[in-house]
Amino acid sequence: MGVDSGLPDFRGEDGFWRAYPALRADRIGFQDIANSEALKRDPVRAWGFYGHRLNLYRGTVPHKGFNILRRWASMKEHGAFVFTSNVDGQFQKAGFPENRILECHGSIHRLQCSKDCSNEVWSANDFYPEVDEDRCILTSSLPRCPKCGGVARPNIFMFDDSYWNDYRVRVRRMRSEAWLLSVKRMVVVEIGAGRTIPIVRNVDERTGSPVIRINPSDYAIDPQKGIGLPGRAFNVLRLLEGSLL
After folding, report:
1. Residue 26, in any domain of the structure
2. Where do the Deacetylase sirtuin-type domain residues begin and end (predicted)?
């Protein structure tokens, strides 16, 4: 969904390294840097990566496909509930209500202690990372935990992560489950969900509701479960919107 807003696509090492050539030079892949151990071992390099992403997401304007989804939701009695594995905060920026968004991998716009010393999560709004993009390193001060003074980290579920604070996700999951119980004749619009990390697809198919699967290549779906539409998010949403007018 975010790619059509100009955000990088991390599918495969080539896509990741195009966005972070400094990591390509050191042969550091996505799983190597988006890793809780990497953050403890070299927080300046890890925050070079996450700080760049935070700045990028803050400056990105959501594409008009978000508005199309929001219009569809406004026409329904129970609106919509967003389930996303993206951590970029684009749905909030596009105007979806915060309490109707479940970010299953957390959000880069919130911080926690790297040791989860107090089980607290706080806003990243006061953290303005300065990054040397040529070397992918943080040049400003590291963010710190207000309780213990240790290095803070994004409140994101990383690879090999035993310190992620998932309290906010658990609360939102309860809200989403309550919303699901209130809805009849639901339709799932699934956009850009892959099979490498299939959490979104698994949730979509588990609802038992018809699925509209939008994906540039991996769009196949059992006809008994829904329909697959090939293409990029905004293009397909725009075509669907035109067919409904």
Report:
1. yes
2. 1-245
